[in-house]
Amino acid sequence: MAERPEDLNLPNAVITRIIKEALPDGVNISKEARSAISRAASVFVLYATSCANNFAMKGKRKTLNASDVLSAMEEMEFQRFVTPLKEALEAYRREQKGKKEASEQKKKDKDKKTDSEDQDKSRDEDNDEDEERLEEEEQNEEEELDN
Amino acid sequence: MAAAAAAAAAAGSGTPREEEGPGGEAAAPQPQAPTSAPGARLSRLPLARVKALVKADPDVTLAGQEAIFILARAAELFVETIAKDAYCCAQQGKRKTLQRRDLDNAIEAVDEFAFLEGEFPISRQSFPPVFFMLLT
């Protein structure tokens, strides 16, 4: 794999912050080491994706789900990640549920007003739209052939 | 959308996702299990970038949001883990700055990191200069 497009890297600032918080105060990290960790993290995601995809295919599913990723972690010998990931997943699900209820409530309120306001909503609820689009993509792409 | 989130993260100032208190996790280092305090930040890595990585795999058809989220969180845990392991090597050298070679050593030493071997081009920094002198 000789080509690695730059935009597949994770943001440096976030990587640096994660590293600094993992290490004791006063410890620094060289630019080369940080960039190597960043690339390693990208490789990790690619490898985990591939492992998770195997589990999805075994289950005859086209869509990767959370349990595929958790199974991949065990396969990759990162069992120690499984528990914290499960906790994070539960928290994420709670947050998503809360968001969805809030946005549905907003929709109901706005429907009572004018229809033109729905177009402006996209600026405030970018994340929700992203998620809804993901779900719609899944429904649409299941009918099409994969690219 | 995602660009705005990434820009905010890059700016590093007042990112809306920051929920943990100052020094909350640094005060209680746990080398084995990564801390995940309740109510802590869910994910710092932008999901859009992680999704781009997932889509880069030609065998992957689709990935659900939860899968993307868990991958992002796992990548964070991975970064914490590898940074700590590399730091052990730096500590032995009594240095306070993590170098590239600490990372290479950690990758060689830890079995779970075996998938990283051969992914990185060998850089000059990995070898002491005397090694190249011996070659000539």
TrEMBL record, chain A:
<dbReference type="InterPro" id="IPR003958">
    <property type="entry name" value="CBFA_NFYB_domain"/>
</dbReference>
<dbReference type="GO" id="GO:0006275">
    <property type="term" value="P:regulation of DNA replication"/>
</dbReference>
<dbReference type="GO" id="GO:0031490">
    <property type="term" value="F:chromatin DNA binding"/>
</dbReference>
<keyword id="KW-0175">Coiled coil</keyword>
<dbReference type="GO" id="GO:0008622">
    <property type="term" value="C:epsilon DNA polymerase complex"/>
</dbReference>
<dbReference type="GO" id="GO:0000122">
    <property type="term" value="P:negative regulation of transcription by RNA polymerase II"/>
</dbReference>
<dbReference type="GO" id="GO:0006272">
    <property type="term" value="P:leading strand elongation"/>
</dbReference>
<dbReference type="GO" id="GO:0006974">
    <property type="term" value="P:DNA damage response"/>
</dbReference>
<feature type="domain" description="Transcription factor CBF/NF-Y/archaeal histone">
    <location>
        <begin position="9"/>
        <end position="73"/>
    </location>
</feature>
<comment type="subunit">
    <text>Component of the DNA polymerase epsilon complex consisting of four subunits: the catalytic subunit POLE and the accessory subunits POLE2, POLE3 and POLE4. Interaction with POLE4 is a prerequisite for further binding with POLE and POLE2. Heterodimer with CHRAC1; binds to DNA. Component of the CHRAC ISWI chromatin remodeling complex at least composed of SMARCA5/SNF2H, BAZ1A/ACF1, CHRAC1 and POLE3; the complex preferentially binds DNA through the CHRAC1-POLE3 heterodimer and possesses ATP-dependent nucleosome-remodeling activity.</text>
</comment>
<dbReference type="InterPro" id="IPR051377">
    <property type="entry name" value="DNA_Pol-Epsilon_Subunit"/>
</dbReference>
<dbReference type="GO" id="GO:0031507">
    <property type="term" value="P:heterochromatin formation"/>
</dbReference>
<dbReference type="GO" id="GO:0140672">
    <property type="term" value="C:ATAC complex"/>
</dbReference>
<keyword id="KW-0007">Acetylation</keyword>
<feature type="compositionally biased region" description="Basic and acidic residues">
    <location>
        <begin position="93"/>
        <end position="124"/>
    </location>
</feature>
<feature type="compositionally biased region" description="Acidic residues">
    <location>
        <begin position="125"/>
        <end position="147"/>
    </location>
</feature>
<dbReference type="Pfam" id="PF00808">
    <property type="entry name" value="CBFD_NFYB_HMF"/>
</dbReference>
<keyword id="KW-0238">DNA-binding</keyword>
<feature type="region of interest" description="Disordered">
    <location>
        <begin position="93"/>
        <end position="147"/>
    </location>
</feature>
<keyword id="KW-0539">Nucleus</keyword>
<protein>
    <recommendedName>
        <fullName>DNA polymerase epsilon subunit 3</fullName>
    </recommendedName>
</protein>
<dbReference type="InterPro" id="IPR009072">
    <property type="entry name" value="Histone-fold"/>
</dbReference>
Automatic annotation (TrEMBL), chain B:
<dbReference type="InterPro" id="IPR003958">
    <property type="entry name" value="CBFA_NFYB_domain"/>
</dbReference>
<comment type="function">
    <text>Accessory component of the DNA polymerase epsilon complex. Participates in DNA repair and in chromosomal DNA replication.</text>
</comment>
<dbReference type="Pfam" id="PF00808">
    <property type="entry name" value="CBFD_NFYB_HMF"/>
</dbReference>
<dbReference type="GO" id="GO:0140672">
    <property type="term" value="C:ATAC complex"/>
</dbReference>
<dbReference type="InterPro" id="IPR009072">
    <property type="entry name" value="Histone-fold"/>
</dbReference>
<feature type="domain" description="Transcription factor CBF/NF-Y/archaeal histone">
    <location>
        <begin position="44"/>
        <end position="107"/>
    </location>
</feature>
<dbReference type="GO" id="GO:0005654">
    <property type="term" value="C:nucleoplasm"/>
</dbReference>
<keyword id="KW-0539">Nucleus</keyword>
<feature type="region of interest" description="Disordered">
    <location>
        <begin position="1"/>
        <end position="41"/>
    </location>
</feature>
<feature type="compositionally biased region" description="Low complexity">
    <location>
        <begin position="1"/>
        <end position="15"/>
    </location>
</feature>
<comment type="subunit">
    <text>Component of the DNA polymerase epsilon complex consisting of four subunits: the catalytic subunit POLE and the accessory subunits POLE2, POLE3 and POLE4. Interaction with POLE3 is a prerequisite for further binding with POLE and POLE2.</text>
</comment>
<dbReference type="GO" id="GO:0046982">
    <property type="term" value="F:protein heterodimerization activity"/>
</dbReference>
<protein>
    <recommendedName>
        <fullName>DNA polymerase epsilon subunit 4</fullName>
    </recommendedName>
</protein>
<dbReference type="InterPro" id="IPR050568">
    <property type="entry name" value="Transcr_DNA_Rep_Reg"/>
</dbReference>
<dbReference type="GO" id="GO:0003677">
    <property type="term" value="F:DNA binding"/>
</dbReference>
<dbReference type="GO" id="GO:0006261">
    <property type="term" value="P:DNA-templated DNA replication"/>
</dbReference>
<keyword id="KW-0238">DNA-binding</keyword>
<dbReference type="GO" id="GO:0008622">
    <property type="term" value="C:epsilon DNA polymerase complex"/>
</dbReference>
<feature type="compositionally biased region" description="Low complexity">
    <location>
        <begin position="25"/>
        <end position="40"/>
    </location>
</feature>
